[in-house]
Amino acid sequence: MKTSENRIETDFLIIGSGIAGLSFALKIADFFKDSNITIITKGEKNESNTKYAQGGIASVWNKTVDSFEQHVQDTLIAGDDLCDENIVRMVIKNAPKRLKELINWGVQFDKENNNYLLGREGGHSQDRILHHKDITGFEIERALIAKVEKQKNIQFLTHHYAIDLITEHQVNKKKTHRKDRITCFGAYVLDEKQKIVKTFSAKVTMLATGGNGQVYNVTTNPIVATGDGIGMAYRAKAEISEVEFIQFHPTALYNPGEYPAFLISEAVRGEGAILRDYYGNKFMHKYDPREELASRDIVARAIDNELKKSGTPHVYLDCTHIPYNRFQKHFPNITEKCLSLGIDIRKDYIPVSPAQHYICGGVNINKKAKTSIKNLYACGEVTRSGLHGANRLASNSLLEGIVFAHNAFKNLTKRYHKIKTPNNIPLWNDSGVVKNMEKVLITHDRNEVKTIMSNYVGIVRSNERLLRAERRLKVLYEDNKRLYDHSELSVDVCELRNLITTAYLITQFSKKRKENRGGFYSADLVNNNH
C-alpha cells in the first residue's frame, strides 16, 4: 500500500467489517498474495450487524430429511413471489460449501455427540439452522477477525468512516447520470481520530456496510447501522431497488429506554415458545395456520394488529413449558438478559414487541456481486441480490453475505488483471467550511428522522402517511444539505446525511408500490394484496 500525505493507494478497498467484508478479504488475501487489501470500518473491528445475529445460518445439512428444494421453496414462499429463483437456487446450493469454509476458518457451531445441532425458525419446514448458542454472529466475527489479523497483506483500519465513493463525478468534475457508464475509483474516508479526510484510490471497492436500522425509533440494529452504503451508492448513481421491504422482527424484548432493542431470537419460537396477548390469550392461530412459525412479516403484522386493537404496549412470549435446562443451554444470553430484568422464564412471560430488523432491498447486484458501477462490488444487507424478495427468510442473511463474497472473489480471479490502477484522483477539498456547528441540531434532526419513519413508514403504511413523511423529509434534506456543505466534517453529520437519504428512498419506493407484498403493507391497498 502506497501512502503520501492524505492519499492512500490500495488494490482492494473493503468498506465494512461484517461477515461479507471479512470473508471476501480472506479469500482475496489468500489468492492475490502480492496485493494490498485495506478494510475500513467506522467503529471497532467487530462492530457490525453480523455481531448481533443470534439465530445462525440456514443450510441444508441433514440430507436424509432435508433437501435443497425444500429450502428453496421456503425462501420463495417467505419472499412472497418476488425472489429471483435462479439466485435463490444458486445461494442455497452453495450454502454447505460456504459453511464448511467458515468451520475451517475456526467458527465453532454447536454440536452434540459429534453432530451439529440444527435449529428451526419461522418459515422453515425443516431443522437447518447451524448456530453457536444464541450468539452466532458474535462467534463468526471472533473467528474471522482472528483469521484476518494473521494475514500480512490485509490492513484493518478502525474509526475510518467512508464519506463518498469516488467516480468520474469527482475525477473529471463532470455530472454523472444513473444511465451513464460509471466507474468507482475508491472512496473519500474520514479518519475520525486524526480528524482528516483521506483519499483512498483502489482498483476494486467492496461495499459491505450492512443495513439502516437507525432510521427507526425501535431497532435491533447497532448504532453503526445508518444506511451509509445505500446513501453512498445512491449519490454515486448506482442502481437501487426494493428498499420499501423493511423487515420488522416480531419479538424484540420490550424494555423502554434500552437502545438498540434486545432481540429475542426467532429460534425461541422454533423451540416451541407461544405468543400471548397482554391478557395471556393465544392469538397466532387467527392469522396463519403455521401460528408462531409463520414468516416474520405475518407474525409482526399480527402483533401490531393485536397491540392496536388492545391499546397495550406489548404482547408476551410464553416459554414456561420449555424445559429450563434446554432453554438455558440453547439461549444463555437471552436467559441472562431476562434474569437481569427480573424475568424468570420458568414462570414469567417475556414482554415483546416488533422492532425494525432488516432491509431486504438496497444496491442492485448480479450473481457475481457486481453493482451497476464498474469495479464496485457489494454484498450483504446493503444489497438487493434477489435472494430475499419481499421478505427475508430467517437465517438467510449471513448466508447471503458469504455466498456473494465468494462469487465476487471468483469473478475477480478472472478479471482483476485487466483493471488499471486509478490515477489523477483529486484530494478531498474542505475549503470554505466553518467549525462552529451546533451538535444539538444533528441530534434533533436524527431523532426527527426516526420519529417520521416510525410513525409514517412502519409496519403498516398509507398514502397519507407516506405523503407526510415525504414532506417532512424534504425539509430535513434541505436543512442537512446546508449543514453538510458549510460545517466541518464529522461522522455525526455524515451519518445524518445517509439516514435522511435512505429514509427518503424507502418512502419514495413505498409510494410506487401498488400491492401489498411481504414486508410492505399499506392500509390503502388491503383489497390489492398479493
Features of the shown structure:
FAD/NAD(P)-binding domain, Flavocytochrome C3, Chain A, domain 1, 14 helices, four-stranded antiparallel beta sheet, Methane Monooxygenase Hydroxylase, Chain G, domain 1, alpha/beta, eight-stranded mixed beta sheet, 3 domains, 530 residues
Describe this structure in words.
This protein is of the alpha/beta class and 530 residues long. Strands 1, 2, 3, 9, 10, 11, 12 and 19 form an eight-stranded mixed β-sheet that branches. It has a four-stranded antiparallel β-sheet with strand order 14-17-16-15, with helices on one face. Helix 1 links the parallel strand 2 and strand 3.
Main sheet properties: 8 strands, mixed
Number of domains: 3
Q: What sort of overall outline do the alpha carbons produce when their principal axes are compared?
A: globular
Would you count the extended β strands for me? 20
Task: Report the CATH topology name of the largest domain.
Answer: FAD/NAD(P)-binding domain
Beta-strand proportion: 15-25%
Reading off the top of the CATH hierarchy, the class of the largest domain is best stated as: Alpha Beta
Report the span from N to C terminus: 52 Å
Q: If you compute it from the alpha carbons, what radius of gyration comes out, rounded to the nearest whole angstrom? A: 22 Å
Q: Tell me which oligomeric state these chains represent.
A: single chain
Low-pLDDT runs of 5+ residues are: none
Overall pLDDT, averaged? 93
Structural category is: alpha/beta
Counting DSSP H or I runs of 4 or more residues, the number of helices is: 14
The CATH superfamily name of the largest domain is: FAD/NAD(P)-binding domain
What share of the residues lie within helices? 25-40%
The CATH architecture term of the largest domain is: 3-Layer(bba) Sandwich
